[in-house]
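Open question from group meeting: does this chain pack into something compact, or does most of it stay loose? Before anyone orders reagents, we agreed to write out a predicted structure and look at it together. Recording both the input and the output here so the notebook holds the full record.
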Amino acid sequence: MKHLTVLSLFDGMSCGRLALQRAGIPVKVYYASEVDKYAIQIAKKNFPDTVHIGDVKTVIRQDLPKIDIVMGGFPCQAFSIAGKHGGMEDSRGLLFYDAVKCVRKFKPRWFLLENVKMKKEWQELISGYVGVEPIEINSSLVSGQQRRRLYWTNIPGIQQPEDRHVLLQDIIQHGTVDREKSYAIDASYWKGGSLQDYYKRCRRQRVFEEYGSRLLHPVECERCQTLPDDYTSGVSKTQRYKMIGNGWTVEVIVHILSYIKEE
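Structure tokens returned:
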């Protein structure tokens, strides 16, 4: 397969680059649009040759070479059932249109956009703009967490991944858990509060040990997202939890990208 020129929007810590690597898809140039300095730091640590090109709002004005694939998970806070349901009226929701502009300008052979389960009206609106219906995949099929996400792509023939039967207990470093799968790791997992607050606000799971209970360690959260251990090391725990929660379940993206190879 030829080396691909990739444009990754809302790149975060470059989960897309890691997925391409695992899928055996060679990369010629990987352009990354991201504004969070900590996510950029981790992306550079793991993939020093990444070409960072700034805010997604400016990408449309840049002179880039022929792009083979545009990929990105546009901000989910505006659409999440756990959020304020602002949708396209939320400034973060409006960033979806910047992603569409990039797809239309650069005319890649393939595109892949991702977001949370959302209201039907928003899903239909997005589908109308990108011209395809999404496929829903739960990360629980390939990892130790429940994470239902929608993937809009023109990569053909994608089916559900086979269930790998990964349990939360399989990936924790020590202790025991009271459930088979973690709830989805979200960007606010790091926020403090009492145990009651954890359960009430975010349904956060706990790991039980001899002398009490604790949150999942960053490495355990990385494993929930099928990242390598310590992929996000080098920044504070707060930033590690945040970027892990904002990231992709890498093995789901590997599965989707594998259909490029079949084509």
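Observations to bring back to the group:
Residues 198-202 have pLDDT under 50 and may be disordered.
Residues 30 and 49 are 8 Å apart (CA to CA).
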